[in-house]
Fold this sequence. Notes:
Oligomer: single chain
Strand content: 15-25%
Shape: globular
CATH topology of the largest domain: Beta-Lactamase
Amino acid sequence: MRLMTPAQLQTELFAQLAEPFAGEALFDCLGDLVFFIKNLRGEYVVVNQTLVERCGRRGKPELIGRRVDEIFPAPFGQSYRVQDERVLGDGGEIRNQLELHFYSSGARGWCLTNKLPLHDRGGRIVGLIGISQDVQAPNERGEDYARIAGVVQHLQANISEPLRVPELAARAGLSPWQFEQRVRKIFRLTAGQLIQKMRMEHAVRRLRETGDAVAIIALDCGYADQSAFTRQFRQTAGLSPSEYRHTFRSPPG
């Protein structure tokens, strides 16, 4: 008996399903992950319950058929739509992009976002599929964390300095490969993403709580110039440092 190819196996199974499989029911079970499918117009076609709740909506029908800029407030909605249009326009993939998301409750959280284009049988882009996985806080009492706790403290105290993975690994008494694996296990991030996250956390705190110039904050967060800092901040938070400050600046006193 000749073995079937993966494509043949999938075709055989999916042809028997009563309705197209989108994974919606499965992703409804995951409270730390947002899942969605959008059409070529950028409208939600499939969403999971986590996205509904984080948008402050009562049910999925309130999202289906609407674009992200119709759901999220300005300036975030427009920023997310630009990201969608980039994927839908040229098929550019977004993989494991560290992002700071803001929710209707006023809370914020770190996510790793992936967005991939969907193609028809002729190879044309017809939509996109995406997930955003929450970045969980590490267990600081765990044995794995103890080995690199000093490195984390070093990062926090020297966020304005050049931070190179081989030097951080040596500080922990690990090889660069061992250090990378330890960081991935504890934080679910690469070492580079951990450094980026800590720089951005420092930046949002300074933007929210002080009136320091953006150029000064950029240098204090380890960026060589304001333009590099602004590019990274916009990619991470969905808006520029000045827009973030205008939106979230703490009142005097």
